[in-house]
TrEMBL record:
It comes from the Eukaryota. SUPFAM superfamilies: alpha/beta-Hydrolases (SSF53474). It holds the Pfam family Hydrolase_4. InterPro entries: AB_hydrolase_1, AB_hydrolase_fold, Hydrolase_4, MAG_DAG_Lipase. Transmembrane segments: none annotated. PANTHER family: PHOSPHOLIPASE-RELATED (PTHR11614). This is Caffeoylshikimate esterase-like. Residues 121-362 form the Serine aminopeptidase S33 domain.
Length: 383
């Protein structure tokens, strides 16, 4: 086992909610209706692009056809952005994009990155993206670098995110979302090119919660788990006050799709480098509106469920976290490291790092994080 950084553990108790009396909830409901938008917040103009592209970017992204149109319009521009991930991305990678319907009838966007011909494949990596992200854009550069090191990389946009069907940013059931991931990746693991290779699941932020729940549902199906700033418990500073949460719990049953969860612009908490923060607006299909009520409550419920099962995490485990992350608490990663029953587990805390250590840090740090992932994979695939 390796523990790169040790910190003092301070772990708060869970919040427990009790229903409010109906007359109180009705008053607060009416107040929220009058003061909080139920639709998308107004989108800012993206500087330095044409009026035509800004018009396309301002489309209502609730449904997949609009998101796909926007992504098609921005793809070429995205690859030309001045970001370390795009400038250094290996070009000789075999990529494939496709759609397939899941068992619930939703059309899911899928993508793969494979090493160039002649490079032996050491293992397969299956990515789970974060809540405000997609499986393309920044991850494109990350996947290319990992693929160039000899790994098949696979990813999907979750239902309601990116280019997949479903209401934008809406998670009616976190468990269904996890089942969607298990269903798709089970198909991929049966492909001839990766069937007999080590398989690893890789989750960032909310994707870390999905990766953990996928492992907890099928403990023997993965040869390792990589977690970057995992959402095992939402930081106290990111949660609304308890009284507001009680109201939101009730309203989530009455109007689950409404965008009523208090909105915070997280870009300054995700990207440490301002120049990289400015480029986040070009991920034009990411969800950047107030959280839908049902989604917010499902995320809270998922973290509480994961917290109660951390001792059941048994696969080889790599946890990476920025020490200054204010979105998901690095102390929770420390708690996960200590509670997990995995015999092979590694925790790396990066001094000064924010939430987006894969894409929002100085170039040297981003490269170091990627190298840490690849070295961890190489060691476990060379046994």
């Amino acid at each position: 086992m390796e523990l790169s950084v040790t910190t003092t553990l301070r772990f708060g108790s869970q919040n427990h909610f009790s229903p409010l009396p109906l007359h109180i909830s009705t008053k607060l409901n009416n107040k929220l209706r009058n003061t909080t938008t139920l639709t998308a917040k107004k989108k800012s103009t993206i500087e330095g692009i044409s009026d035509e592209l800004n018009t396309i970017a301002s489309l209502n992204l609730d449904f997949a056809p609009s998101r796909r149109k926007v992504r098609d319009a921005f793809t070429q521009l995205q690859h030309q952005l001045d970001h370390f991930l795009f400038k250094t991305a290996p070009s000789e990678i075999i990529t494939e994009e496709w759609y397939e319907r899941n068992s619930r009838g939703l059309e899911i966007f899928c993508k793969s990155w494979m090493p160039e011909p002649g490079v032996p494949i050491k293992g397969a990596l299956f990515f789970c993206h974060g809540y405000g992200s997609t499986c393309t854009f920044f991850f494109e550069g990350i996947a290319r670098r990992i693929a160039a090191s000899g790994y098949g990389v696979y990813a999907m946009d979750f239902p309601g995110f990116g280019l997949s069907e479903g209401l934008h940013g809406y998670i009616p059931s976190f468990d269904d979302l996890v089942d969607d991931v298990i269903e798709y990746y089970t198909k991929i693991k049966a492909r001839p090119e990766v069937r007999d290779l080590p398989r690893f699941i890789f989750g960032q932020s909310m994707g870390g919660a999905i990766a953990l729940k996928a492992h907890l549902k099928e403990p023997s199906d993965w040869d390792g788990i990589i977690l970057v700033a995992p959402m095992c418990k939402i930081s106290e500073g990111m949660l609304p006050p308890n009284t507001v949460l009680k109201v939101l719990t009730l309203l989530s049953k009455m109007m689950p799709k409404a965008k009523l969860f208090p909105y915070k612009d997280l870009s300054e908490l995700i990207f440490r480098e301002p120049s990289k923060r400015k480029l986040a607006v070009y991920n034009v299909t990411s969800y950047d509106d107030p959280t839908r009520l049902r989604t917010g409550m499902e995320l809270l419920s998922a973290t509480q469920d994961i917290e109660s099962q951390l001792q059941n995490v048994s696969a080889p485990l790599l946890i990476l976290h920025g020490a200054e992350d204010k979105v998901t608490d690095p102390l929770v990663s420390q708690f996960l490291y200590e509670k997990a029953s995995s015999m092979d587990k590694t925790l790396k805390i990066y001094e000064g790092g924010y939430h987006g250590i894969l894409e929002g840090e100085p170039d040297e740090r981003i490269s170091a994080v990627h190298n840490d992932i690849i070295q961890w994979l190489d060691f476990r695939c060379s046994r």
